[in-house]
Amino acid sequence: MPLCCRLCFGWDSSGGGGTTPIKADIVGSVSSSLPNSFTHNPLSGLNMVTVNLRATTVAAVLTVLADQTTATCPSGFSWENNVLTKAAINSTTNAELFDFGPVEGTPASSTIIGGIPRPRCKTFPGDPLWPSNSVWNLLNLTLGGALIKTVPLAAPCYSDWPQYDAAQCEYVKTNWNRPQLHVEDPTSAMFPLWQGQTCMPLDHPSQIYDNCTLGGYASYSVAVTKVSQIQLALNFARATNIRLVVKNTGHDFADKSMGAGSLSVWTHKLKDIQYIPDYTCNGHSGPALKLGSGVETEEVYQAAEAHNVTVVGGECRTVGMAGGYIAGGGHSPMSSLVGMGADQVLSLDIVLPNGRFVTASQSSYPDLFWALRGGGGSTYGVVTSVTVKAYPQIPVSTLGFVFGTSPNVTADTFWAGVEAYTTYFDTFTAVGAYGYWLIVNIGPGQFFFSMNPLWGGNMTLVQFQPLIQPFLDDLANLGISIDPVWNEYPSLYQAHSGTFPPENVGGADNRAASRLFPKDNFINPTKRNETMAAVRYAVEAGGILIGYNIRAAPNSAVNQTNSVNPAWRETTGFFILAAAWPADASPTVIQAQSNILTNDWMARWRQVSPGAGSYLSEGDINEPNWQQSFYGSHYPRLLQLKKKYDPTGLFYAHTAVGSEDWEVEGQLPGLPTQNGRLCKKP
Ligand SMILES: Cc1cc2nc3c(=O)[nH]c(=O)nc-3n(C[C@H](O)[C@H](O)[C@H](O)COP(=O)(O)OP(=O)(O)OC[C@H]3O[C@@H](n4cnc5c(N)ncnc54)[C@H](O)[C@@H]3O)c2cc1C
């Protein structure tokens, strides 16, 4: 005899109709406490609906999720063959919670579950319509136990959290600035400013609040290991009108992988890498790598090394290659040779906002294929895997050196040395070289330059040194002496491991903006003078400059007709500028410094590069006219496709395509955290 229960959608009902309260625990121990069926009702005043969820039918869903072959070229990973079908949904009595959305391109449903007209705001914790613990438990059961209730990463530091643990707190504190700590957490991201710093490790220099709340963290995450779980999560979020976010590693400069009151799809566990020596699909033949969307850059480089090939990836070891990196365009030490990361894509597998799982390639969903390569993450669906072209293994030569102001090198001479470098930007990138460097202000009128490294892809030292020597001669003629460190490596992986410094994240004491300077800014002497004056102004005022001498090389071997910001195709100088403040600065101080970054320093950079752009994955959270800056002339088409594939706005991220229609409530001007409720603008 099944035990029947009844609850309102937003709360467990222990009264009314003589029903028995559900005693389901928080996610983690659901199966024993789950009732065989229950009913949940929208609040009074709205039409009553009944959604029965039987444990037996939930089990049936999991059974009907039979493995079936999905993508054919290349074939899917085994977990990509575990998909949700209409038959599986129909076999339950709870179809409303997990049903697919309308086919793309058809009108969006104007109602959510229960026939309720779609509200202006996403449902938020504490709202009457927020699912009860029991409903979350049912979701967890349906997901096969993959749902995680958020515990902030630094909760072990707070005695009012059950997870309080001094030793664990010490571990979190010690490792807070390491990317990997945040990569391995379901909800944490690397820029705590946008989370609201509501739960920093205790005694961290950036701690300004002494309490620990969820802040901008998602409420729940799904640690996905198969496609069906992503489909179920998307369908559930759409039906219940809950904000959805996608978290991979949490590297995005604007913390686009988090949001208060959201259900997060956490892709970290999708780690498969398949080497395909003779990929022959989508008009391409040759070696390729298929990457699960949780794979990090260094893991890809290692796999490529094992198969004696080279793959285009970023400079940071832990960035998610098939997640935000490719979605944003993806710059690489290889870019001056073969183009952007997004240019290398042969096909992508993706769960669409309507819950359907499809392959996007030149021949399948070609409009989506165009948009997914540069149009930004968290916009058109959840990418599950990406297949990218692989190149033969190449030698890489590198050069590292530093110089700075000194009794022999005045500030003017220092800047003349920097300008001398910029005169070679076009020459170096034209033959495939790339430079990654840093300039910091180390005191009034004192500056420091570090080359980390200058990189010659597909060059031996014998080829690389003569290319670079004229620049070193210029430095010597200016009286700037350096101690060059030359190296030659047999592969990208070895050069990458041997040269790029580890990166620090997790600080709330700075934030960044970026500019893609067109090559003419360094070729034309007048423009170069203006550009260098604007750059020097910002660094003299305290800005920290991370520079790249890079181009997105044209490459007829790949499909470069994609949505990568056209500004990338014009650039030879990609400059990131950070403003800093004391670690314990108040929001007022941060707002003031933040304002200087956007409206003074960067305004001057924009003024000397009218019509150029910025890199959306490493951009200013307050970028003015961000549609033009981050997406350029592609924006109208990207927006049209957003409306086609995601008409109800299931996917949202700050400055993502279509995000102008939405706002996160309760923001301090100029300090946009993810801590509030997401609402459609009136
Ligand atoms: C230290 C550091 C170094 C960096 N180095 C480089 C570099 O060398 N080259 C470069 O181009 N960029 C670099 N970046 C920027 C980086 O590429 C972007 O932040 C990128 O968006 C990270 O993607 P992710 O998936 O790892 O991170 P996340 O922050 O988890 O995701 C970024 C965005 O993509 C979305 N997303 C993630 N996975 C998916 C998915 N499977 N489907 C749909 N949407 C998804 C998220 O929702 C979010 O909006 C660096 C950033 C940092 C902090």
Quick gist of this model?
The protein is of the alpha+beta class and 682 residues long.
Main attributes of the structure:
682 residues; alpha+beta; 5-stranded antiparallel sheet; 21 helices; 24 strands; binds flavin-adenine dinucleotide
| Biggest pleated sheet | 7 strands, antiparallel
Mean pLDDT score: 89
Poorly predicted parts = 1-60
Supply the number of helical segments.
Answer: 21
Total E-strand runs? 24
* Cα-atom radius of gyration: 26 Å
Protein name: FAD-binding PCMH-type domain-containing protein
Keywords: Oxidoreductase
Family: Belongs to the oxygen-dependent FAD-linked oxidoreductase family.
Domain FAD-binding PCMH-type: 214-393
Any overview of this molecule?
- The protein is an alpha+beta fold and 682 residues long.
- The longest helix has 21 residues, at 587-607.
- Mean pLDDT is 89; it is low at 1-60.
- The protein has 21 helices and 24 strands.
- Helix 17 (525-540) packs antiparallel against helix 19 (587-607).
- A 7-stranded antiparallel beta sheet has the order 19-16-18-17-21-22-20. A 5-stranded antiparallel beta sheet has the order 9-10-14-12-13.
- Keywords: Oxidoreductase.
- It comes from Podospora comata.
- InterPro entries: BBE, FAD-bd_PCMH, FAD-bd_PCMH-like_sf, FAD-bd_PCMH_sub2, FAD-linked_Oxidoreductases_BP, Oxid_FAD_bind_N.
